[in-house]
């Protein structure tokens, strides 16, 4: 796939504050690319610069090889779907969808045909003559999407499009939005702060932090191989372990001393040597928990003894927090079998936490404040 949408050294400042700082990345033609990050990270600023609502202080933006920087918004081959829908309350659904075509002075027959096509695409044919206050929030969002698509943009910009909807409706509309994308085949740039949305719908994700793009990759790559502690903490929950390399155990593994916890084996994701300080990301679902002592552990596995301090039953899984020395590990146990016939670990139990060495990931950079982003219970006194 070719590079269709390009941000090249884009910067936007407000006084001394950099909303976006020297951002460069490419979006491929026909893909769904998500810009993901917390509030204030610069993702919406990038989208608004692409739409033409604000201009960058430096850099340029190209669509299909054409520099659109400085071109008025209505002359750019992009359309935007906003979180607020921005529908005209006095117009019918049909007239809302066809408004842009009417402003472009298209013929009545062409407008009617294109609007009918959009109504069918978003499954709103039977609601065509209703007003916006007569339909649901999810249907309003589909009207907004249809109105944006009817002008046949080269890029569809979606700015937190599902944020105002409840969880069940968001999940359903994500599927519908993906189906619409498959039907129209154009490039989607999807801005969100919701990690689940981004991973569910995107071909690739750009994780943003403080005006910069921290990492770009497929959802599985971002989740399984975060480059630093910010990405690891923002994309789901994780355990952070810090230690020092004792020795290499051949080409694949190294032995690492974790302060106040003991020795563990890590997979050599990057070049490390005895004496090096390391920071490890270890997802809770990669760990297993058991009340019986494990058999002898080979070089590819770890087993740490601890005590259960907190338990939360979540239906599909149970989340445990296990004290190991001066540290706490979050562990998730999936309920793939019926559990009422067995006694699971509970508060105060002595347990063993196990994981494969290659299920942890060595981070390039670590900042202690990122541990505060994790949705874990506070330390017990």
Description of the molecule:
The model has no long low-confidence stretch (mean pLDDT 92). The protein is elongated and about 75 Å long. It has eight helices and 20 strands. The chain is α+β, with helices and mostly antiparallel strands. The longest helix has 18 residues, at 167-184. A hairpin with a 2-residue loop joins strand 1 and strand 2 (17-28). It has helices at 43-51, 93-103, 108-121, 137-149, 167-184, 195-201, 219-224, 229-234; strands at 3-14, 17-28, 32-36, 58-63, 66-67, 78-81, 155-159, 187-192, 204-209, 212-217, 239-249, 253-258, 262-267, 277-282, 288-290, 301-313, 317-324, 327-334, 350-356, 361-362.
Task: Describe this protein with a few key phrases.
381 residues, six-stranded mixed sheet, 22% helix, 2 domains, elongated, 8 helices, five-stranded antiparallel sheet, Rossmann fold, alpha+beta, 20 strands, 35% strand, OB fold (Dihydrolipoamide Acetyltransferase, E2P)
């Amino acid at each position: 796939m070719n590079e269709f949408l390009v941000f090249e050294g884009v910067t936007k400042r407000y006084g001394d504050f950099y909303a976006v700082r020297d951002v460069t990345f490419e979006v491929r033609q026909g893909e769904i690319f998500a810009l993901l990050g917390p509030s204030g990270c610069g993702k919406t600023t990038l989208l608004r610069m692409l739409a033409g609502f604000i201009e960058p202080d430096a850099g340029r933006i190209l669509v299909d090889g054409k520099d659109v920087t400085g071109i008025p918004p209505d002359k750019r081959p992009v359309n935007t779907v906003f979180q607020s829908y921005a529908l005209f309350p006095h117009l019918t659904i049909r007239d809302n969808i066809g408004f842009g075509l009417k402003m472009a002075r298209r013929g009545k027959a062409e407008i009617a045909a294109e609007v009918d096509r959009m109504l069918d695409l978003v499954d709103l044919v039977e609601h065509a003559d209703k007003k916006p206050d007569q339909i649901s929030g999810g249907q309003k969002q589909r009207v907004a999407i249809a109105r944006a698509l009817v002008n046949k943009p080269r890029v569809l910009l979606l700015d937190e499009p599902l944020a105002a909807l409840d969880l069940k409706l968001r999940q359903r509309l994500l599927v519908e939005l993906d189906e619409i994308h498959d039907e129209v085949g154009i490039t989607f740039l999807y801005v969100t702060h919701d990690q689940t949305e981004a991973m569910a719908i995107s071909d690739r994700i750009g994780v943003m932090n403080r005006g910069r793009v921290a990492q770009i990759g497929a959802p599985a790559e971002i989740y399984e191989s975060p480059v630093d502690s910010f990405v690891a903490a923002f994309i789901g929950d994780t355990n952070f372990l810090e230690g020092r390399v004792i020795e290499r155990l051949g080409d694949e593994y190294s032995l690492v001393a974790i302060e106040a916890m003991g020795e563990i084996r890590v997979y050599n994701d990057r070049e490390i040597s005895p004496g090096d300080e390391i920071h490890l990301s270890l997802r809770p679902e990669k760990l297993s928990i058991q009340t019986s002592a494990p058999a002898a552990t080979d070089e590819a596995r770890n087993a740490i003894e601890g005590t259960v301090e907190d338990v939360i039953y979540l239906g599909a899984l149970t989340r445990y927090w296990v004290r190991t020395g001066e540290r706490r590990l979050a562990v998730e146990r999936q309920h793939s079998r019926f559990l009422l016939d067995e006694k699971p670990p509970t508060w105060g139990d002595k347990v063993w936490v196990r994981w494969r060495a290659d299920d942890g990931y060595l981070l390039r950079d670590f900042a202690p404040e990122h541990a505060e982003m994790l949705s874990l219970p506070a330390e017990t006194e």
